[in-house]
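From the methods appendix. Each design record in this collection lists the tokenized structure first, followed by the designed amino acid sequence. Records were kept in a plain field format so they could be parsed without special tools. The example shown here is representative of the layout used throughout.

RECORD:
FOLD TOKENS (351 positions):
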């Protein structure tokens, strides 16, 4: 395995900047996830690392060697594509062997490597089947085996689970993570699914409009988002528009006074509060810094959790999320209610 360094990477198509000056260092054995909405530049970045797209500017280094101008087959990078890109006319074994044959390895060594890799992804005995004879999860494992068979310096995953159903996605992402840890693979994965990213990553990179917005651990990005975009994309937040009247004192556009923490300056701002930090009850909670009255607009039953949408003013709405357990206070639509949260639960972003 090897460290991967992305230095000032950019891609421009005419006047459109698909990727803008992205610089990242992925340590040997690290699992890094590029997270962002469609069109944010994450897949373009991954394909420039793989060698399928030529960068407009910047460099890619693998194990300290500059591979920017090398074609994909000379980079020793294993890639799993979103649609798996399996050859439909080749058997499972032939698909896995493809990269090894391109490297002109001896046939006996290829056969052994294929057998070992299929066992690694729990597909022993499937070598003679065609891709159409496999389930979606099995096809995904074949694509992963083909990428691993070449013993890559870096593993690149482009939305590898997007074609699987929700339950299978949960199972396969755990399998990929365990396999990555077992092999010590330096890995970069692209996804727009925040739950997938939070489950699998050592570090997360949030991208928007071709640029990196924040890099950090799951806790960093969730509890200390750099801006409103990150707060809204990683996890869920309620946003209250308003004005920071003084440090620690925020007033919403609907006229509600809110206490927050440690934010300098004054002026237009937005207050972000995570739903699970909001308490609800039939009466004010004197132990909380903020306690506001409102009316229940909507109750969403999510199984283990319940979302309660509360109208606080004509322009202010708050979402509280509570655990679904015996004795929990669950109001009805139209019921008057009080919501509250500590000052530390609110984060202010200046506009």
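DESIGN:
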């Amino acid at each position: 395995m090897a460290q991967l360094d992305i230095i000032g990477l950019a891609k421009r198509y005419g006047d459109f900047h698909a990727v803008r000056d992205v610089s990242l260092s992925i340590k040997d054995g690290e699992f890094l996830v590029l997270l962002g909405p469609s069109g944010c530049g994450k897949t373009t970045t991954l394909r420039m690392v793989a060698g399928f797209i030529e960068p407009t500017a910047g460099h890619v280094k693998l194990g300290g060697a500059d591979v920017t101008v090398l074609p994909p087959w000379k980079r020793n990078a294993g890639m799993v594509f979103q649609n798996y890109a399996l050859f439909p006319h080749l058997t499972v074994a032939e698909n896995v062997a493809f990269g090894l044959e391109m490297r002109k390895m001896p046939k006996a060594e290829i056969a052994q490597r294929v057998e070992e890799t299929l066992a690694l992804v729990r597909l022993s005995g499937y070598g003679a089947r065609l891709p159409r004879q496999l389930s979606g999860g099995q096809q995904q494992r074949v694509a992963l085996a083909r990428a691993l068979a070449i013993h890559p310096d870096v593993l690149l995953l482009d939305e590898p689970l997007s074609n699987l159903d929700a339950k299978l996605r949960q199972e396969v992402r755990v399998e990929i993570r365990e396999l990555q840890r077992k092999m010590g693979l330096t890995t970069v994965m692209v996804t727009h699914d925040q739950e997938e990213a939070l489950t699998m990553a050592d570090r997360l990179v949030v991208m928007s409009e071709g640029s990196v917005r924040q890099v950090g651990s799951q806790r960093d990005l969730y509890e200390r988002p750099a801006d409103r975009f990150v707060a809204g994309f990683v996890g869920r937040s309620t946003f209250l528009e308003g004005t920071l009247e003084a440090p620690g004192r925020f007033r919403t556009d609907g006229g509600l006074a809110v206490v927050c923490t440690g934010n300098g300056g004054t002026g237009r701002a937005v207050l972000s509060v995570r739903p699970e930090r909001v308490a609800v009850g039939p009466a004010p909670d004197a132990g909380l810094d903020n306690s506001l009255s409102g009316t229940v607009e909507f109750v969403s039953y999510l199984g283990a959790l319940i979302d309660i949408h509360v109208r606080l003013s004509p322009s202010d709405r708050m979402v509280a999320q509570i655990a679904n357990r015996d004795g929990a206070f669950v109001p009805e639509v139209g019921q008057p209610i009080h919501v509250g949260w500590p000052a530390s639960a609110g984060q202010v972003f200046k506009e």
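APPENDIX NOTE: Helices lie at 42-50, 92-102, 107-120, 136-149, 166-183, 194-200, 218-223, 228-233.
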